[in-house]
Amino acid sequence: MIDLDFDKQGGLVPAIAQDARSGEILMLAYMNENAWHKTLETGEAHYWSRSRHSLWHKGESSGHVQHVKSIRVDCDSDTIVLLVEQVGGAACHMGYRSCFYRELKDGTVSECSPKIFDPSEVYK
User: If I label 108, which of 16, 40, 71, 102 is the partner at 20 to 30 A Cα–Cα?
Assistant: First the structure.
């Protein structure tokens, strides 16, 4: 078992969710020790919501859960990458496939990730 270093960053470690098949970066969130253990226990991504100050099972409201296929831990044991199968197609609470749906290129901002759902319909 890998022991993560939760002490360096106030009890949280950054967790990058990446599509296991395509390699697309879907989102960045944070895990505390409880979220880490729930993720290992269930095989689905759990995070710590910094805004709500609570454990968050990804997809609990939208149904767009993340099935964890593999976990990579960096050399300092303080950042992880979750290789996931994104159920429902959208990782972003704004309804996009990826939270990184905006691209700045040549001074112009454009959307580079498809919008999958309308958040006002999903999060009533």
Answer: 16
